[in-house]
Amino acid sequence: MMAKNKEPRPPSYAVSVVGLSGTEKDKGNCGVGKSCLCNRFVRSKADEYYPEHTSVLSTIDFGGRVVNNDHFLYWGDVAQSGEEGIDCRIHVIEQTEFIDDQTFLPHRSTNLQPYIKRAAASKLQSAEKLMYICTDQLGLEQDFEQKQMPEGKLNIDGFLLCIDVSQGCNRKFDDQLKFVNNLYIQLSKSKKPIIIAATKCDECVDHYLREVQAFASNKKNLVVVETSARFNVNVETCFTALVQMMDKTRGKPKIIPYLDAYKTQRQLVVTATDKFEKLVQTVRDYHATWKTVSNKLKNHPDYEEYINLEGTKKAKNTFSKHIEQLKQEHIRKRKEEYINALPRALNTLLSNLDEIELLSWSEALKVMEKRPDFQSCFVVLEKTPWDETDHIDKVNDRRIPFDLLNTLEAEKVYQNHVQHLISEKRRVEMKEKFKKTLEKIQFISPGQPWEEVICFVVEDEAFKYITDGDSKEVYARHQREIVEKAKEEFQEMLFEHSELFYDLDLNATPSTDKMSEIHAVLSEEPRYKALQKLAPDRESLLLKHIGFVYHPTKETCLSGQNCMDIKVEELLANSLLQQDHGRSNLYHDSANIDKINLFILGKDGLAQELANEIRTQSTDDEYALDGKIYELDLRPVDAKSPYLLTQLWTSAFKPHGCFCVFNSIESLTFIGECIAKIRAEASQIRRDRYMANLSFTLILANQRDSVSKNLPILRHQGQQLANKLQCPFVDVPAGTYPRKFNEAQIKQALRGVLEAVKHNFDVVSPVPTIKDLSEADLRIVMCAMCGDPFSVDLILSPFLDSHSCSAAQAGQNNSLMLDKIIGEKRRRIQITILSYHSSIGVRKDELVHGYILVYSAKRKASMGMLRAFLSEVQDTIPVQLVAVTDSQADFFENEAIKELMTEGEHIATEITAKFTALYSLSQYHRQTEVFTLFFSDVLEKKSMIESSYMSDSTRESTHTSEDVFPRSPRGGSLDYNYPDSEDDAEGPPPYSPIGDDVRLLPAPSDRSKYRLDLEGNEYPVHSTPINCHDHERNHKVPPPIKPKPLVPRTNVKKLDPNLLKTIEAGIGKNPRKQPSRVPAAPPEDTEQSDNYAEPIDTIYKHKGFADDIYAVPEDSQNRIIKVRNSIVINTQGEEENGFSDRVSKSHGERRPSKYKYKSKTLFSKAKSYYRRTHSDASDDEAFTTSKGKRKGRHRGSEEDPLLSPVETWKGGIDNPAITSDQELDEKKMKKKPHKVKEDKKPKKKTKTFNPPIRRNWESNYFGMPLQDLVTPEKPIPLFVEKCVQFIEDTGLCTEGLYRVSGNKTDQDNIQKQFDQDHNISLESMGVTVNAVAGALKAFFADLPDPLVPYSLHQELLETSKIMDKTERLHELKEIVKKFHPVNYDVFRYIITHLNRVSQQYKTNYMTADNLSICFWPTLMRPDFENREFLSTTKIHQSVIETFIQQCQFFFYNGEIVEAPNAVACQPPPSNPVQMVEPMVPLQLPPPLQPQLIQSQLPADPLGII
After folding, report:
1. Which residue in 798, 816, 950 sits closest to 880, CA to CA?
2. Are 1223 and 1185 in contact (CB under 8 A)?
3. In the chain, pLDDT over 70 holds for what percent of residues?
4. Distance CA 755, CA 1024 (A)
5. Where would a tag sit more exposed on the chain, N or C end, judged by fewer CB atoms within 10 A?
6. 856 in helix, strand or coil?
7. Is 1267 helix (H, G, I), strand (E, B) or coil?
8. Hey, is 337 helix, strand or coil?
9. For residue 2, what are the CA distances in angstroms to 7, 8, 9, 81, 292?
10. What would the mean pLDDT of 662-672 be, rounded to a whole number?
């Protein structure tokens, strides 16, 4: 049963392959191809096919198991597959005759029959005979596959008769055919099927093949198959045909002629080859190996097919060719790169045409090898050529192999290089010739387009030679030169007309009339007209100059690094020995410090870097400072350390000071938080009395990039924090330094620590002190103009060359001390050398005993600046004029120098001043003695000068409601505080008027009467007064802002002294009618947010509702004089002159005047400018009149000048009192005799409030309706977008953003430039964030209608009274939806921006509450004529605050957020009567407080109501 169920085994056939065999004599040099035919059929893969099979064997091989002493080989079996699996199995036997390699006769075997009979045997037997594979198998059978012949015996089923149809080797085809004929006869006797295989048809001889075919045709059923074992053509066909003859049931195969079969086979090979080559081409790295690639591809069908057809060897050869191609391609590219780089190398090494023009290439190579830069361009390889070395793999080495230069391509490049140099030389010559042609054309003006000039140069030879691009480039260069020259001349002209600009106070803003006067005067100048075609640039230069005049700092000095302040500091730092024995002794006597413990605080490794720098400058931890050696113990700690407080103060380490270093806004903020923590810890624990007074010093690290745009911001922010913390700030010194920290910074910081320790020692243990040894007897200021054509060394040589010259006190980088015998005693004279622009602040606010005014006799601008400065100096202060030129001969040879020197001497004669000249070529005039007479004069007048100074200080402190500069004759300092509201001045620059580290003269103060607590606040000290030199510490922080008064006061401005005299006289005449001051709200009643006053720049007041910041009497009859909240009514009818005379007499002394009234030259110069535009009066008349009518000049506005001081309807400062011309003052007074009376008339109330026009120029953008500035595609005005983007990109973390006002001139300049070009970049203008913020607020203030419509104000007001928070917010959301679509989009945009600002409140201190205080009047524009509105201001402010806090809820469907301050979020009470009372502590600007108005004005004298 099992036998029946077994599947039938496929039939097995044994085929015997026979053919001509025997010795070489019988068969020739090679066989007929029986073995190759068997090999190809049994193992068809190319790798298993062996073309060589020998029949000459050794006896051992013959007797091995493969041959097994038989003359036949068993090749194994092949399974023929059909559709249903294996069809049959064919065993292949090859009948041959093996020859002994010794005797070359057939080996003897068991069958001794001849080959013909033996080959025809149908039964073969050989026990354990192994399958034959190749000749190498013999003797090494164990290394190959071992397969035995089945059962050791086979029955032959058919014969394959092989006939070689090739040319053969020493064999005759006829002999082979005879042998085959005999063999065929013998085979036919076996009655087995026979097929003839014509072998080696790839080398076929046609007539041999025809004879074979003829032989077969004579036989019955004898088929000829044309085969080629080498190309595997018809090999399988012949065996298949034989099997069909053995099994008639099989289909008869089609016998294909050799050529047709060969073509088919070759097509298969070609297709497989193409696929394999594509596969190989995926390899792009010529370093790849065959082993690696073949392992990756071995399972790929295309790879396997090719290997089967062509073999691994051919595949490897194909791969090797591809790799070689890749390598050659790489070499070609590298060579191309080298050849392309060769011109650059030649330009570097052989750029001189004169040197190489006549050299051959080989000579040039020798020249190049000697160049120092040769190794950077070329590489000399040890092995050559370069493309056979590993240099081809060094892709990062761009140097050219030197042996490559020996090629023709390199020589051709050299020849082209020489020709290029020749043509370039010619081109440059022609460009320069064309440039000279342009210089000869006189009518080319700055800014003239090229198109207007081209017609005049078309015939020029040089123009024809150069290209169009070159001609435009030359013209552009020519334009740059003449434009630059014209701008320099224009700037020089502005300095020559200094009297035009320096008649206003610092931080003022020029009015429209003033700007008209400036343009009227300058327009007559050719240098003004030269920039006619560059009017925007000219206007920008003028505005920049005006901005510098009113906000002067050494950083913004128009001379750049040639600023006199910078040069003086550098010279003094290098020339003076920083030793002051008096100061060293003071340290020793006070605290006897030999060792300094320093705690260094920084972020991200900055602390360690500073410690390393200090150690580098030390020797064994000993540091030399001011002639003394100090042992330093440094403890650097990262600000992020969690053990900060524990490391700061230990029993073994008690720091004398803490250096806080920063180099970014982030690190500065982090430092500020750390200092706050340390001070809070010290306040709570009270570990040590010194701990409470630990000195902190802020140090700015150098950015290693002098043009870094972040440096001014860092400096400003650092200065602000220093002001806030009441600690020194050490700035990056001027100049370029390679390291982050400079030696001068470290010394300045160490001196500050020593002085702080000394101060703390004196405060804790006060002792009586003698006069400070370093205190000066005389304080002299030397002024020189920036950019003057002489060296600073020349004007300082009279002092520096003196043996009695020494360094000033630490921190006074611009001062020196002289010890001179004047009279009968030795005097200490402090000389402070400043630029004129830095001296302005000293002239106004500091005690100065004398001025040395230096000017260049070669420069008109220098004399103009001197005149402008001297005009405003009080005539009680002695002056020395110094003219500087090369030699005395200049006076006689140069008319311009003679004129300026004569003018200087004439002015000196008029004002009874000293005059001298310094000559750069003379040594005599460099002696200190040239100033001895001047010093003596100063000493004689010292008492009078100080008395005059003290009387001015007393009048200011008595008659103003603010102690601006409390002074005493000696010692002390000013106390500067950071502003708390926007009322604290718009004008002050971000730095001190004379720079961060310019040392002003010590100003007297009452500071010694107070101590500092931990928060930097002062409280009285009842002890012996001590001189602790606070001025040195305080002056390390520049004083940009008014000091905060000791008691809470309303906003106050410092008034002009002369105006105060007038007010004082009026008060003296009417003592009983002087109203009492309104008491300020007590400090404990004020909230934290009350430090922010309502921003005046956004609150417009009606004409009649006069701004009482300051006002001047416009006539002498029944006028009201207001100083902040004090109102003085003058009922006297005296004339002005008589009034002034009585005031003077009441004081019993001559009041100091100014030199411009003492010098006819100075006064006539000042008057001449005014007369050009206003008057025709003569100089004599003007001079005489000014002596009789001298009035105080009103100070310019320091508020954000959206409002002018007196006339709120006019833009800028339009105050007649500003003008220095007395006659103009009288004319303006007479023109307005009835103005106040008109204002008293009742005003008719209107619903809307029209804003004043704050601009002094026409604009087609600003002041336009919002609908005209937007489109559906761009719903936000472009100006608003630019401002917001600038603020968010550069200043979102700026402290006091939107509260601290920016420069008014910069604000106007931003809008003017935008008017001219809407695509202007704010970044390129170099303006501050505060200026851009101010310009943005001004944009909304100028809109015809407020952004929040008036029609919705009442709804917003009523909704804000809803007690339930959720209900109130949803109601507000519905009201916002009623906005006009344009207003809604812009309102959402600006509120979203303010929300982003408020999110940075930790760094900018601008919470939503503070922002709403600054912005609500701008967005809602209240009607302050409506008296009822005054009681609802806080409600309106809270509405805007709510919009900012809940921005996501109102505009982006976000969730309601919890307000950070619960008090601020509570809605106001619904009872309007109760809302009036809480308004008192808000400290609104004085005109807006109804309680104050009601108490002061029982009647309505101003006609407001």
Report:
1. 798
2. yes
3. 71
4. 19
5. N
6. strand
7. helix
8. helix
9. 10, 12, 14, 26, 53
10. 87
Which pLDDT score, from 0 to 100, does residue 973 have? 35
What is the dihedral angle through the alpha carbons of 936, 941, 942, 945, rounded to the nearest 10 degrees? -140
Cα separation of 431 and 426, whole Å?
Answer: 9
935 neighbors 829 (Cβ within 8 angstroms): yes
DSSP output for 767-829: ------TT--SEEEEEEE-TT-SS-HHHHHHHHHTSTTEEE-STT-TTEEEEEEEETTEEEEE
pLDDT over 80 (residue 1262)? yes
Distance CA 716, CA 613 (A): 25
Which residue in 1048, 1044, 1049 sits closest to 1084, CA to CA? 1048
Tell which residue, 1054, 1082, 1088, has the closest CA to residue 981: 1088
Do residues 88 and 158 make contact, with C-beta atoms less than 8 angstroms apart? no
Nearest 5 degrees, angle CA 688-CA 692-CA 694?
105
DSSP H/E element including 715: helix 710-725
pLDDT at 1065: 47
Angle at 230 between CA 224 and CA 234, to 5 degrees: 35
The Cα 132–Cα 147 span in angstroms is 9
CB atoms within 10 A of CB 1490: 16
Separation of alpha carbons 579 and 584, rounded Å: 8
Contacts of 340 (CB under 8 A, 6+ apart): none
Amino acid type, 752: G
d(CA 1253, CA 1111): 21
Distant-in-sequence, close-in-space partners of 1258: CB < 8 Å, separation ≥ 6: none
- 273-287, 341-355, 494-508, 643-657: which range is least confident on average? 643-657
Report d(CA 301, CA 305) in Å as an integer.
6
Whole-number Å distance between alpha carbons of 240 and 720:
104
- Distances, alpha carbon 1365 to alpha carbons 1361, 1377, 1409, 1456, 1460, in Å: 10, 19, 17, 10, 14
Rounded CA-CA distance 936/948 in Å is 19
Owner of token pair 């809407």 = 1318
The pLDDT of residue 1460 is 54
Tokens of 1270: 């937007």
CA distance 1113 to 1122: 9
Q: Mapping DSSP to helix (H, G, I), strand (E, B) and coil, where does residue 1162 land? A: helix
User: Can you give the C-alpha Rg of the chain in angstroms?
Assistant: 53
- Dmax over CA atoms of the chain, in Å, equals 168
Q: Are strands 914-919 and 879-885 parallel, antiparallel or unpaired?
A: parallel
Q: For residue 1191, which of 1290, 1244, 1113, 1078 has the smallest C-alpha distance?
A: 1113
3-class SS of residue 554: coil
Helix (H, G, I), strand (E, B) or coil at 1130: strand
Neighbour-count burial for 1193-1222, b at 16+ CB within 10 Å, e otherwise:
bbbbbbbbbbbbbbbbbbbbbbbbbbbbbb
The reported pLDDT for the residue numbered 1304 is 83
C-alpha to C-alpha distance for 1203 and 1100, rounded to whole angstroms: 7
Distance from the Cα of residue 23 to its chain's centroid: 95
Q: Which of 393-402, 493-502, 975-984 has the lowest mean pLDDT?
A: 975-984
What DSSP assignment string belongs to 416-438?
HHHHHHHHHHHHHHHHHHHHHHH
| Identity of the amino acid at 114 | P
Residue type, 482: I
CA 414 to chain centre: 42
The closest of 834, 838, 773 to 809, measured between CA atoms, is 773
Mean pLDDT of 61-70: 91
Q: Report d(CA 1002, CA 1033) in Å as an integer.
A: 11
Residues 208 and 193: their CA atoms lie apart, in Å, by 23
Q: What is the mean pLDDT of the chain?
A: 75
